[in-house]
Amino acid sequence: MYNDNPTLESLAKTIDESKQGSVYDRGHPESAEEGDRRRFYIESYGCQMNFSDSEIVASILHEVGYVPTREMEAADLILINTCSIREKAEETVRKRLQVFDRVKQQRPGTLVGVLGCMAERLKGKLLEEEKLVDLVVGPDAYRDLPKLVHTAQDGEEAINVFLSREETYADISPLRLDSNGVTAFISIMRGCDNMCSFCVVPFTRGRERSRNAFSIAAEAADLYQRGYREVTLLGQNVDSYKWEHPDTGELVSFAKLLEMVAQVHPDLRVRFSTSHPKDITDEVLYTMAAYENICKYIHLPVQSGNSRILERMNRTYDREWYMDKVRRIYEIMPDCAISSDIIAGFCSETEEEHRDTLRMVEWANYSMSYMFYYSERPGTLAARKYEDDVPLEVKKRRLQEIIRLQNQVSYRHNQKDIGKTFKVLIEGDSKRSDQAFRGRNSQNKMIVFPKAGGLKPGMYVQVRVTDATSATLMGQLTT
Ligand code: SF4
Fold it and tell me: Could you say which architecture CATH assigns to the domain 421-477?
C-alpha cells in the first residue's frame, strides 16, 4: 500500500478523493436521490483530538449515505462529541441534551447520540440517566456507528464503549468539517499511557497506540495537494509516538515522523500538540531547528511549578527537570515560543507552592497558557487518594493571579515582536474587519494586517509588527 520513497503525488493518491470540497448539505437537495439522503448534525467539545474525531465520524457516516447538516432541526441523527476533563464540560453536555430533546419532540424519529469521553466515562449509565439518548459510542467504537444507528432505530439499546489497543482509524480519511481550507488536524496516535492523577483521559481513551507513519505522510500530502498549507499532528502525548514498520521492523520515532511530514513540501507548515516534558527529546528539537516549515512553537504543559505537587499529580518530572527542558528548547531554538497548561489549587497545594507556579510562568516566559482550577474527576487516582481540600474561593483567587500574571507575560512577549517581520500564513479575514486578514507566524501568534490586492487565504506573506496586545499582533505587509 505504501512504498518507502513516496513522491508527493503517489502519497496523495492513496487518499480517497471522494471527500473533497464543502461537505455540508446545501439544505436544498439537487436530486431526488440526494433528497432522501439522511442528514446528521454534530457538535464537538473539548480538545483538538475530539474535533479531529468528529471528522472521522463524519467520514464513516458519509460512507453509508449520510450528509452533514448545520441545521439541527433538519437532522435525522443528532450527535454530540463530548469532553470529560472537568465537571463543567459535562454540565455543558447535559444542557445541550435538553436542547436536542426539544428538537426530538418536534421531529419524532430523530436519534440522539453521545460520543467521546463522557460516553466512555459513563457508559450505560448515560442511557439510564438521560432517557432522550438513543446511542452511546466511545472514542474507539466509531466504526460501529452505522450498525448502532440501526439498532437504535429498532428501539433497542445501542451502545459500544469498547476501548481498543489497535484502533487508529488510519484507513479512514477525515471529512473536513467547518474547514478554512488552509489548516487541518492529523491525528497520529490515540490514548495515553501516562497516569496523571487528575486526568480521566487514560480511562476514556485507553492505552497509547501510534498510527502507521506512511498513512500520516499520505494524509499530509493529500491535504497539501488540496490547497492546505498547515497541518497539526495531534496526540495526547505526541513525543511518545513510536511506530514499527510491519515488514522492515524499522522504528519510526516522533522526530522521524516530523521529518517525514516536513519533507512532504517546504510550503506545508507542520505543528504538533501535545508534548510531555518527560518525553520530549533533543532529537525532536534538532529536527524542528533543521526544517524552516516545522513551526517554532511547542505546547509544553507544566500543570504546576512545584515539585511536591508535581509528584502528587504523578507527572513523573519535577520543577528542575521541566526547567532543563525549557532551557534546552531556548538553547536550540532561541526564537521558539512555548505555551503551557496550568492547574491551580490541586489537592493540598499551599500558598508557597502556588507562588512556585507563578514564578514558573514568569521564568519560562510562556507566550500563552490554558489555565484552570482543579476539578476532581470521579475514578481518577487523585479522587481515590487525595482530598480535594483547597477551598473553591482560594482555587479561584489563585487561578485569577495566574491568569493576570500570564497576561502580563504574554503582553511583554508580544511587545518584543514590535518592529520584527514575520512570515505569516493567511488563514482568513480578521474577526473584527473584512478589510484585514488574520494569520499566524511560526510561533503560533495571531497577526492581523490590512488586506492588499491579489492575496487570499493559503498564501504566505511578510508582515512587520507595528503594535501588540497580550493576545494579538498587529502589522503591515512588507512585500
Ligand atoms: S499526559 Fe497526563 S494529562 Fe495528558 S492526557 Fe495523559 S494522563 Fe492526561
Answer: Beta Barrel (2.40)
